Protein 1
Amino acid sequence: MKSALHIACSRQNLQQVRDFVRGHLDGHGFADVAINQVVLAVDEVVANFVIHANEEDESQFLDLTLGLEDRLLEIEIVDQGDTIFLPNPTAVAPDLRESIKQSRKGGMGMVLVNRLMDRVEFFARDNHTVCHLSKTLR
Amino acid sequence: MKVTAQPAADSLTLLLDGELDASSAIVLDTELAKPEILTYRKVLVDCAKLSYISSAGLGVFISHLQPLQDKDVKLVFFNMQEKVFNVFEILGLDALMTIVPTQAEAVAA
């Protein structure tokens, strides 16, 4: 089963992205926590593309494709903008005690994505950035 | 995302309703940045209706924790849904923040 979503680069569209992922995974008997983990991983990647790669330029677009076969979930997120944005997929977790001391807000998004998904890949294709996420749901 | 503030004698309860993400985190950030928040002994965060949190939402709490601690204001979360608690747990934030099951425990914390 495959589904697709096309959105403009606005953080207002993050809710639509989460609803899209939930809609795809609901009704298959997956635990609420497991569904939320996938929703969170996709939300974090999309937020990175929208805010950091495209600086919330609503004339730029992202395409999401979700495929579920048995329990294997494969997600492709394509940034149709021209900026190649390749976050370090092995990002080291920030020292949270230090983040608290310094009142630092960021640095956790990609760490979460790596901990939540089985496989995380960013690469360039036809001058666009592509993110592949996959996970076997239990 | 809706944030409702319920002031009491020495504590402030914040009721969070909805999804806390990169779009809505500003609402909570604005609430926690109000100077009067530092006049309470405790800020109790009722998470019963908080159905989602992303790193942007966590970042808001992380960024306000030290200023609150500096003024001896305790930040306590309660009524947290399992899927939301799971996000705190994945990053180890459950060990750095006070999260209790019920309102009674939050008041007593």
Protein 2
Amino acid sequence: MLRLPPFRYLAPRTLSEATRLLAEEGPQAMPVAGGTDLLPNMKRRQFTPAVLVGLRRLRELKGIGGSPDVGVRIGAGETLTSVSNHPLIRAHYPALALAAAAVSTPQLRNAGTIGGNILLDTRCNYYNQTEFWRHSIGYCMKRDGSICLVAPGSPRCWAISSADTAPVLVALQARVRLVSVRGEREIPIQELFYDDGMRPYTREADEILQEIWLPPALGWRSTYLKLRRRGSFDFPILGVAVALRREPDGRIGDARITLGAVASHPVEAEEAMARLRGQQPTPTLLQEVATLAAKRARPLDNADLTITYRKQLTPVYVRRALDLLVEAEQGSGAE
Amino acid sequence: MDEWRRLQPRKAGPYKVVGKPLPKVDAYSTVTGRAIYADDIILPRMLYGGLLRSPHPHARIISINTRRARELPGVLAVITGEDLPRKYGILPSSQDETALAIDKVRYVGDPVAAVAAVDPDTLEQALSLIEVEYEVLPALMSIEEALARPDVKIHEETRNGNIHKAVSYEFGDIEAGFAAADYVREDWFYYEGNNHVPIETHACVARWEPDPHNPIGGKLTLWSSTQTPHYVHREVSKVLGIPPSHLRVIAPHVGGGFGGKSDPFSHEICACELARRTGRPVKITCTREEVFLIHRGRHPVKMWIKTGVKRDGTITAMHFRSFLDGGAYGSYGVATTYYTGALQPVTYALPAYKFEGMRVFTNKPPCGPKRGHGTPQPRFAVEVHLDKIAADLGVDPIELRKRNLVRPYSRTINGLRITSCALEECLDQVVARSGWREFHAARLAREAEATRQSSPVRRGMGLALSTYICGAGKPIYWNDMPHSAVQIRLDRGGGVTVYCGATDIGQGSTSVLAYIVAEELGIEPERIHLETADTTLTPVDLGSYSSRVTFMAGNAAIQAARRLKELLHSVAAERLRLPPDRLESGDGFIYCVDDPQVALSFEQAVQLAEARYGALVAAGSYAPPEDIHGDFKGAGVGPSPAYSYSACVALVGVDIETGEVKVEKLWLAHDVGQAINPLLVAGQVEGSAYMGYGEALMEQQIFRKGRHKIPSILDYKIPTTLDTPEIETILVGRPDDEGPFGGKEAGQGPLLPVIPAIANAIYNAVGIRIDEVPITPDKVLRALKAARSEPGERPLPPPRVTPIVLNELWPARLIRWSPEQREPRPDPTNGHHQHPRQGESAPHGAASTSSQLPQKGGTA
């Protein structure tokens, strides 16, 4: 078995104690919630924090509540299982319930939290390897090296945003609250992400993601499709999150399409969304929108299956997600 | 009467234990976590050992400096290649490994140094302190590269470039066969190969007990998660220079092997040497990544096949070539090479057959045996190839196969003896149960319906047949001793202890021994205590490979039990005043068949027998019959005392927009003869179906810049329970004349037809052929797009297997052989073939082998 590197574990009881400990310990400390991403990464020496600040006891990170007309608050420390099973989320934010249920395996969803999934380290099959493997092939810039092994000429890291819930929360226009000894900030979730595989989050080292706010859901429908190889225990090689609001006359009032696992951050298909707004969703239009959305996907050879395949599947998955939402509203079949 | 029909009378049914769906004897301890696996063993003062492995696929070792590691507090021993210089390998003909690399490393993961330390953290630190200077050499990562660069020699010993082994055979008259054909087709296929992925990673604990009065210095015990304690015993003894009498190898519970734990391994040898040097027990547990590096998995094989047929599909000749990517060392590879060719004539009756096989060394983890050992690759090729021929000729694929089925009680063109064979029944069963005819008749209606519903899913059904050995007919090292032996001791309290070297790797071989002895002695299996897989306590069984254990250990157990039963019945007959032939054993009694009320309890009989005969211990043994193969060099691979047969129908749904394939159902009929326990047989069939499904569609053994690309079970895709198709197991066949209670194998054979059945079903669904395994969705989509050539898209050409072009002749001398060349031989002069090896169960005597027996030990 791979060994964890040595570290100290601190177990604060309140959020303010946790933020204080993170501030005191400085960049050598990392917060840990479910640990399902961090601990394996530590075993592979992608992270070697001297201190882990445990978040599991913090009540301030717990709870799911609200309503579809005022919005819903989700504590970042809620497990993916409780998010995917929550009646409010299943009924009104189905894309989130689907995404949370699509993460990894039942055991890991019982331990892993939604906050941890949002802040999942970006992934790359040159990087998510053991110390032995990375030493063998030569380290990459994301850890211990200086070049990107996927695109050696590139000045940047192309590790992939691989969280199932992240594109969904972007499509749902969620906001997140970050807390530190320096204060609190609440930001649209898009502002949490950088297009940078090495530093994918705007979260500062001393900040704790406390909660997620979902806006009112009335009139919205949403879904999430995940391209994967098997029924469980896979990161997405493509995630498609779509949220739609229809006008009474059937036209699309508003549309959000976000792609996961195609870049270092969740990618909004803005052109495609704009093309949908105010239109009647005909099969031809949906196909056109899907093709537009897929232009935003630029996969590289650092995840499962081939680049061509992942690229080719993007419009298919976007169109299928749109079809699902349009059909659900129209009852039987596309026109 | 045929020689194989003159056999011992079988115990008359109905059976009390055999054929019943009983739980495994270790079921409760296994599922409740009480079973002890190698890594569970913790001994006082135990050290933790580990291996430093090469980071380069091919490099010369310039220097190794272990000083800093040795000086680290908590490190008790550091060893390198010079400390264990003796070469070893599972096959006597491929002694090409050293426990730790000397001079050269040949793949990423090749062990270079070993450390023993007081705890795992110190161990890890010590390994990082060893400095190795390498001169990096060009790495050969494919069959083509290995053939193209004879100047870069991976092993100095190879005579011809990097060719490890090349063979060439012609059985019957191949030219005449093709001349008689109305139609000839050629195809290339590629099977990428894969790892076994046992859930338990390899682990071992070694203990040295020093004894200054012992000239050897002490005795060594090794607990290891191995399928073959006997072969590990031989090789560790050889490398360490410790006589076998001073070495004890024990396999505790083993968490799956599938062939991956059949070699002697560096970590086992190093743990032993570290224990000897430190005088303390040493444990080495491999990581998952190390399991991928140790490998010994399915060989990547490129295959070329050419078949001639009559208009009706009757095969007139087959020419088959295989190119095996062996990885860095020999392992079982010579046997694997033979196996890619040996069993083709055992499924279909081939009137003429030419086989050329070659294995090359590459700078990848060494390949070896995996479930089906060398036969899933050709099975895939042959069954897809025949389907293509059926389509070309417009012949029903079932009819084509039926015209060519091998016949029961026959000889193949390459000299193999076929006995019981329910292949046709297997075929009929899967066709009937799957609704094959109805499904194909409804094709047009189904397609119209899919179009009407604008569904992207197209369904298809495919079929394939296969055969597998019930135990290798020859041991790995040439000898005339039994392949399996069982000893039974009866206790005057009624207890029964069974000793056998057979190694339960989860398949249930220990349980099978219990059922068989219980049936013979007429007692319940729970009464029996089993000691297995311990080279000191138990008589030799060669190991859990080649699907040999039920057949061979089972027959040995029957013989041992019968010897005891005879004693029990003799005293019971006397006490009950009955002739012994009126007695039967059952339900814990020895009773009169005419009046079961006249009975003696098992305990009473044991006590009477012990009083009469002394301690009640008996042994039985088994070796396969002699005259089951041809008399040419290399005939030792392929013969078996019996063959199992399987047929599979796969129902798939192919998504034409995504190329994703869902296997909706597998119907698998298997000729197991008599199931000793139908529950365990069904478990083996389902496990085979699951594994075949994963190999067909998911598992990718791919390398990037000389490294295994994805050595983790997150990234290396094996199916989950959610993916596993519905499996309908159909057990067919009648008891085999020579199998224990008529039993044959079930552990490997059922995997074989699954892969081509799925490939043929995909073709049936969408009309594309992917002649390469695994059939991943990207390949399917590419082929679909190439076939559709949609406007506006510039489709890639369909995936195609690139042929291997040989500029020279096949690098092996052609051996021609025909069955009619077999001439009756007078009584053998070398009497050692006549020793009483298996008592009454040996149907030889009229054996007619020439003096030209296979020169090297036949192999797994």
